[in-house]
Amino acid sequence: MKATCWTGRNSVEVQEVPDPSILNSRDAVVKVTSTAICGSDLHLLDGYVPTMQNGDIMGHEFMGEVVEVGPGVDPARIRVGDRVVVPFPIACGACSACQAELYSCCENTNPNAGIAEKLFGHPTAGIYGYSHLTGGFAGGQAEYARVVLADVNALRVGSGFTDEQVLFLSDILPTGYMGAEMCDIQDGDVVAVWGAGPVGQFAMDSARVLGAEKVIAIDKEDYRLQMAAAQGYETIDFRNTDVRSALLEMTGGRGPDKCIDAVGLEATHGAGHIDLYDRAKQAVRSETDRPHALRQAITSCRSGGIVSVIGVYGGMIDKFPAGAWMNRSLTLRTGQCHVQRYMKPLLRLIERGAIDPTRVITHRLPLTEAPRGYELFKHKRDNCEKVVLTP
Amino acid sequence: MKRNSRSTVTLAHDPLVRGLGWASLALGVPQVVSPYGFTRALGTAPALRNRWTGAAIGVRELTAAAGLLGRPHPAWLWTRVGGDAMDLALLARALMNRDGRGSARTMAATAATSAIAAADVYAAVTRTFRSSPLELTSTVTVGKSPDEAYEFWQRLDRLPEFMTHLDEVRATGPGTSHWTATAPFGRTVEWDAETTEDVPGQRIAWRSLKGADIDNSGEVRFLPAPGGRGTEVHVRLRYDLPAGALGKAAARWFGEEPHQQLDDDLRRLKQVMETGEVIRSEGAPGGKRARSEFPQHPARPLSEEELKEALS
């Protein structure tokens, strides 16, 4: 079959690889009908996530039709012929993390937990196509993919939805939603969102659904800000505006009640010298992540507010504004999305028309053009917001 | 892990160590009392320099004797090894610069010193890198009741499902079993074991019987986890490794870290008990062999041959 493979820093290729097979008795194999490139795939492409190997299949946003099931799969849950969306974190459904619906922290699904533990203190769940640190699972940017513990890790969807309507239930829609949910939004809240990429857009939509009075998008790409403005959100272009001052201006001097970091470890900064500082430190590995968005969210948030982090961080940062965080009673909430928790409720929101996931799609390419998709998305060419690939 | 303690108590009762201590004393006393007589006996030239050298060697011997008999420590044995090297060098010089007299006696002395040196090296090496117990402990919480966890362990034959180094545990009778394991450097070791304690729902302990390739024992305890979170499984394993410290260091050099291995084993125990099997990825298709598979298979499906090998 054809699959999008990582072949080194800044290099992906569509290669011919063996078809997937059942490795565990509760596995299933799906024929992928739609898959997408995620912003976090760019962290892999750019070489910021350790333990990638030449030939690893990329992709953790995919859906398709079940073509094979292992002998241990509960037929009441998944059968051949089902149309399923696959959540990116692999959960077992049985451990104490899964029982607490913290699926991305599953204690059983990462065969390389011993390595992950060295970096994170405790291991996290396996993730498809996301380095060997998260288990070394083949990704879904391919013609076929293995679904691990399929009775827990596949959501059946009816034929009443198009692929594009439900594909993003695999990651970015629940991730954005969880970002807003962690904000514990109250009547009258102003929510600021750093990053107007697809996850940021869905965090904004979710904040509105959850009752935010005003939503502010912060980015530097005109087309992304326009996409947010078209939904009725206010915008700040950090290239030509001081973010903190603008936020104070827009909130009567209070600062946003809730702040969402939908940027993560590869942030760029409006002020050249600060950007240069973090890039230099990152280049010599004295920090792994560039946390501009996180710093700014913490210093901008009103006292007693919540900073919700859904942008991906991988290792160590420095110049963390601990003083602002502690002295101003801020709450920091984070997590890789516990996708399984949100899939069904969000499917209902899509059905009701409260959220339209298709609004972020700007590019539809055949799987064979995946490398071009990565180029467009990475360099934000051709107003690229979200690339969907079809095998 | 507890440090391997070479206590003064054990060395104090070690016949070889005591013997070498008394030998030091027996050689040291005449050298100090009559350095001239001693150098003559060796057939070395009775020059004043040699006499003082003899006395100095005598003092060294007495110091080693005091150490070995008074406060035994492998360092004293290494002092003796160093002294032997010095003595052999002096004797070699005497053999080369000689005027013909007493050469037979010097040769005999050289032979005797070589024999003593061999005994010293043997004692120093074996007493420094002696067989030492390797004690490993690890714990994991599984979402099962203590009774269920106990039942899983009771016959010990399911251990190879999740423990990397175990190939097979077979029950051979009531309370006895035969174990096959892979030791560092790919060796296969076997032993018979008996269950020494079996408290349903609480504790199982076992130990190898006489004639084991590696003497070992183990214990598992099942404690209810607080808040109804299942059972804390506490495992303690003890191995008497040949050439303990040296073996451990060598194994680590080849990438086998026993503590990490036991932690990983118990993680897989949790997988088996909670999900039914060890989770495999394309990168780590060998299940319990995941760690030894680095660098891993790329995260892409396996070819048919690779699949056959991985699932074997």
Automatic annotation (TrEMBL), chain A:
Spans traversing the lipid bilayer: none
Cofactors that this protein relies on: Zn(2+)
Record keyword DNA-binding present: no
Keywords: Metal-binding, Oxidoreductase, Zinc
InterPro entries, per the entry: ADH-like_C (IPR013149), ADH-like_N (IPR013154), ADH_Zn_CS (IPR002328), GroES-like_sf (IPR011032), NAD(P)-bd_dom_sf (IPR036291)
Pfam annotation, one family: ADH_zinc_N
Domain Alcohol dehydrogenase-like N-terminal: 26-147
One term of GO molecular function: oxidoreductase activity
Ranges of residues in domain Alcohol dehydrogenase-like C-terminal: 198-268
Protein name: Alcohol dehydrogenase
Similarity section: Belongs to the zinc-containing alcohol dehydrogenase family.
UniProtKB/TrEMBL annotation, chain B:
InterPro entries listed in its UniProt record: COQ10_START, ORF3, START-like_dom_sf
Pfam family, one: Polyketide_cyc
Basic and acidic residues: compositionally biased ranges: 302-312
Residue ranges constituting the Coenzyme Q-binding protein COQ10 START domain according to the UniProt record: 142-266
CDD domains, alphabetized: SRPBCC_8
Segments for region (Disordered): 276-312
Protein name: Cyclase
Species of origin: Streptomyces bungoensis
